[in-house]
Amino acid sequence: MTTERAAIFDVDGTLVDTNYLHVVTWWEAFRQAGHRVPMREIHRAVGLGSGDLIEYLLGKDRDPEDDGQVVAAHHALYATYFDRLPALEAAGDLLRALAGRGWKIVLATSASGAELSALRRAIDADDVILGAASADDVTHGKPAPDPVQQARGLADVPSERAVFVGDTVWDMEAAVRDGVVPVAVLSGGIPRADLDKAGARAVYRDPADLLAHLDFSVFADGE
């Protein structure tokens, strides 16, 4: 039986303070395509892959021919922030602390390509990040378990040896479906009650709060 352990992290809203940037840029992308979508609804959908987010917000009876225009507009708008994406406090320190305790660090995110590169630059902890399971690597994004499974595969650990940290209901549902331990942070703006209901084993304010409580967290189990 393997003794190795994986700490899998979502990125947007969990390690980098970008959820509200996504809300505004998706809102503008929808507006340009002629759709009026309330920002509160977009916020709830952040964390889904682009196609799932559009379906969640516009419904299955929309004209899917317009999806590409919306996705392209969002990407172009969001890309204007790539050079100044703000990491959440202590995000990189948290990853290094866990790596120092023997945890394999893997990212699981719906971002890919240049966007993922920008996020990783913001975190500034590539020295301890083993790899990333991105939107390019899976057929189904969160809340399907595929991104978490892909991340575990990179770390080569079974579900009972992994913890997944995220900020959305979709993150918690994906973790539960894969059988890893779900841990949530409030830095993405999702209410604690929603994260608890979705299966979060523990909830912290942000990466800095989790780092401050590592010795009393699920990351201390079995040490």
Distinctive features:
10 helices; 13% strand; DNA polymerase, domain 1; single chain; globular; alpha/beta; six-stranded parallel sheet; 223 residues; Rossmann fold
Task: Explain what you see.
- By secondary structure, the chain is α/β, with parallel strands linked by helices.
- The protein folds into two domains: 5-17 and 86-220, HAD superfamily/HAD-like (Rossmann fold, 3-Layer(aba) Sandwich), CATH 3.40.50; 19-80, Orthogonal Bundle (DNA polymerase, domain 1), CATH 1.10.150.
- 43% of the residues lie in helices and 13% in strands.
- The chain is built from ten helices and six strands; from the N terminus they run E-H-H-H-H-H-E-H-E-H-E-H-E-H-E-H.
- It has helices spanning 19-32, 39-45, 50-58, 67-79, 91-100, 113-123, 146-155, 169-178, 192-197, 207-212, and strands at 5-9, 103-108, 129-133, 162-166, 181-185, 202-204.
- It has a six-stranded parallel beta sheet with strand order 3-2-1-4-5-6, with helices on both faces.
- Helix 1 (19-32) crosses helix 2 and helix 1 (19-32) packs across helix 4 (67-79).
- The longest helix has 14 residues, at 19-32.
- The mean pLDDT is 95.
